[in-house]
Design a protein that fits this description.
Layout (H helix, E strand, L loop, with lengths): L1 H26 L6 H4 L11 H23 L21 H32 L1 H24 L2 H25 L5 H18 L1
Helix pairs in contact: 1-4, 3-6, 4-5, 4-7, 5-6
């Protein structure tokens, strides 16, 4: 199971990196290294660590708590993140790590916080760029629930919750960690691993 998940995760990262890579090759290759351009770079914290830690704990707690509450109202049979690992036991934990940190965490952070936010921020400013990437991030999560349930309130809630957290991750990276996407990658991956581990 781990091998299949790991290979699938690497393929997804490559696919999700393709558009940013093409864009970089055309517009930014001479200006900056690709990895730094998408935010895979050294973390430079700004401000007080305790303040940042409190903000992360509060935002993460609210997101996990509200999402867990909302999921209880989903119709039976609608799958959520990590459902594929349900009942597999802790032998599946290495596969969960590949899923959480590579397949979902890394690939989504590259696209939304590494590519969209940074490029939009250059064109329309950080505030607008962060809102746009957060909306798109939320829609990527909410629309599948809407298609599965045909329920507008479910679609709205399951768009707003990840969208709001995506906004927080964008703010955290750009305003507290010097533009590195490593903090949001770690946070995103950790949440996904926790959710999938609970399902084991």
């Amino acid at each position: 199971m781990f091998i299949n998940e790991f290979v699938g995760a690497l393929v997804q990262v490559l696919l999700f990196s393709l558009i940013p890579l093409i864009f970089w090759l055309i517009f930014a290759r001479r200006k900056q290294n690709f990895f730094k351009w998408i935010g895979i770079k050294k973390i430079k914290h700004e401000g007080k660590w305790w303040g940042t830690a409190c903000a992360i704990l509060i935002a993460t707690g609210l997101y996990i708590g509200l999402t867990s509450f909302a999921i209880r109202f989903l119709p039976e049979g609608v799958t959520t993140a990590g459902s594929d690992f349900a009942g597999k036991g802790f032998a599946a934990f290495p596969a969960v790590l590949a899923y959480g940190f590579i397949r979902t965490g890394l690939s989504e952070e590259i696209v939304f916080r590494g590519f969209l936010l940074k490029r939009l921020g250059e064109k329309v400013g950080f505030i607008t760029g962060n809102i746009i990437q957060a909306i798109l991030f939320g829609m990527m999560h909410g629309i599948p629930f809407g298609l599965a349930t045909h329920n507008i309130p479910v679609t709205i809630v399951m768009t707003i919750l990840p969208g709001a957290f995506g906004w927080f991750q964008g703010w955290m990276n750009e305003k507290k960690f010097g533009g590195s996407i490593i903090p949001s990658w770690f946070l995103h991956g950790t949440i996904n691993v926790i959710v999938a581990t609970i399902a084991l």
